[in-house]
Write a structure and sequence with these properties.
Blueprint (H helix, E strand, L loop, with lengths): L15 E2 L3 E4 L6 E2 L2 H10 L11 E3 L6 E2 L11 E2 L1 H20 L6 E6 L6 E6 L2 E6 L1 H7 L6 E5 L3 H13 L6 E4 L3 H10 L6 E7 L8 H10 L2 E8 H7 L9 H11 L4 H5 E4 L8 E4 L4 H14 L2 E2 L3 E4 L5 E9 L4 H16 L3
Parallel strand pairs: 3-4, 6-8, 7-10, 7-12, 10-11, 12-13
Antiparallel strand pairs: 1-2, 2-3, 4-5, 8-9, 13-18, 14-15, 16-18, 17-18
Helix pairs in contact: 1-7, 2-11, 5-6
Length: about 350
C-alpha cells in the first residue's frame, strides 16, 4: 500500500537526524534525544555561540553509542509521565468525539501537526517504556475518522509513520505531509469546507513553533476542537527575569507566540532604586504570571478554553500546559465539548 503524501521533499534545516529527533546537546559534546531538555539548552545560548562537536548519542538511559555508527532508534522522542497523561486525554476525547458525531452529517477529520512515529518512549524511574503515540491512538479510534492528516518533517519519522499506516486497517484514510507544521497547516485548513466538516486538531509542538496567526486561522474554521500543548519552559527561557536580558530575538519569539507585545507590561514591573541607581525592570521568578497571561490570551481568541492542565516531571516545576479549545461559537457545541473535556482532564492523576 502506498501512503499518500502532500510533498515529496523535506529540508532538514541543519538539524541532526540519526533515526531520532536529535540536536546538539550540552557542553559534553553529546547528541541528545530528549527534544524538550535539549531545546531548553539550545535556546538559552547566545546568538552565534559555538556548538560542541558531537561525539556520542545519549539515550538518557546511561552510557551512549557512537553518533556516527548509524544506529537506528524507532521511538520518536523521550518523555515522562506527563507525556502519558496528555496522550491519555487525547485517547479519551477521540473515543467520545467520533461516537458523539457518528450520526451527524459531517465529514470527520483528525489533524496531527507534530505526528512523530506513532510510538513514544517515556522515562519511568531509571528505565523507560514504549507506548502508543498520538498517530497510533487516532488510527485506533472507533468509529474511525473519515480522514487523518499527519504532519511530520523528519524523514526517519515519516518512514515509520508510513509503515504504521500501511499495516493499519484505517491506513487508507490517512495521508502524511513530510514538512513543518507551519508550512502545511495554512494550506490544509484552506482545503476544507468547514460548514460540512468537523474535526480534532492535536497541536503538540516541541517548543514555541506555533504562531498567533496560525491560531487565528484555526479559530476561523469554527469547526475544530483543539488540544494545544504550550511549552511553559520555552516561555520561561525567552522571558528572562531581567527585561534587559530579553534581546530582540527572544522578544520576537514571545510576540509571535502570544500575538502581542503586551507581555512586557503584563509580566514585568519597574522597581526604582535610590536616586543614584537606574530602575530595574523584572518579572516574578515563578510560572504563574506567564501561565495566567497565556490563558487570558487564548480565552480572548477562542469561544472556549479549558483551565490548563499542568504537566511536569516528578517534583519539578511545570514544563507544559495542556489546553483544550473549541472554535465553534455555537453555545450548545461549546457546552458539550467543555463538559466532556473538563471531565476527562479532571480524572487525570
Amino acid at each position: 500500500m502506498t501512503v499518500p503524501t502532500l510533498y515529496t521533499h523535506v529540508a532538514e534545516n541543519d538539524q541532526w537526524i540519526d533515526g531520532q529527533h536529535c540536536r546538539l546537546g550540552p557542553p559534553d559534546g553529546n547528541l541528545w534525544v530528549d527534544p524538550e531538555e535539549v531545546n531548553w539548552w539550545m535556546q538559552s545560548q547566545p546568538t552565534g555561540a559555538v556548538r560542541p562537536t558531537p561525539r556520542t548519542l545519549n539515550t538518557g538511559l546511561g552510557g551512549g553509542r557512537d553518533a556516527t555508527n548509524g544506529t537506528r532508534m524507532t521511538a520518536n522522542r523521550f518523555g515522562g509521565l506527563w507525556t502519558a497523561e496528555k496522550l491519555d486525554v487525547l485517547r479519551r476525547y477521540l473515543a467520545f468525539y467520533t461516537q458523539a458525531l457518528k450520526k451527524q452529517p459531517f465529514k470527520l477529520i483528525y489533524i496531527d501537526a507534530f505526528a512523530g512515529t506513532g510510538r513514544c518512549k517515556i522515562k519511568l524511574g531509571d528505565g523507560h517504556t514504549t507506548i502508543d503515540g498520538s498517530a497510533k491512538i487516532a488510527l485506533d479510534c472507533s468509529p474511525a475518522f473519515v480522514r487523518y492528516h499527519f504532519v511530520e518533517k523528519k524523514k526517519k519519522h515519516v518512514a515509520e509513520l508510513e509503515e504504521l499506516i500501511a499495516a493499519h486497517p484505517n491506513g487508507h484514510r490517512a495521508s502524511i505531509a513530510p514538512r513543518a507544521a507551519g508550512d502545511i497547516l495554512p494550506f490544509l485548513l484552506r482545503g476544507y469546507d468547514w460548514k460540512a466538516t468537523r474535526g480534532v486538531l492535536f497541536l503538540d509542538p516541541y517548543g514555541l513553533q506555533c504562531s498567533w496567526p496560525q491560531l487565528e486561522q484555526i479559530r476561523r474554521t469554527e469547526a475544530l476542537d483543539v488540544f494545544f500543548l504550550v511549552s511553559l519552559s520555552g516561555l520561561f527561557r525567552q522571558a528572562a527575569l531581567d527585561e534587559s536580558r530579553v534581546d530582540e530575538g527572544k522578544a520576537a519569539k514571545l510576540t509571535a507566540f502570544l500575538g502581542t507585545d503586551d507581555w512586557r507590561r503584563e509580566l514585568y514591573t519597574r522597581e526604582q532604586g535610590d536616586m543614584f541607581d537606574a530602575p530595574q525592570i523584572t518579572r516574578d521568578p515563578g510560572w504563574k504570571d506567564i501561565l495566567d497571561f497565556t490563558t487570558r490570551r487564548l480565552r480572548g481568541l477562542f469561544p472556549y478554553v479549558s483551565d490548563p492542565r499542568l504537566l511536569s516531571a516528578a517534583g519539578g516545576a511545570p514544563k507544559f500546559a495542556l489546553y483544550f479549545a473549541v472554535t465553534n461559537p455555537d453555545q450548545k457545541a461549546v457546552g458539550l465539548a467543555a463538559r466532556v473535556s473538563r471531565d476527562i482532564l479532571n480524572k487525570l492523576h
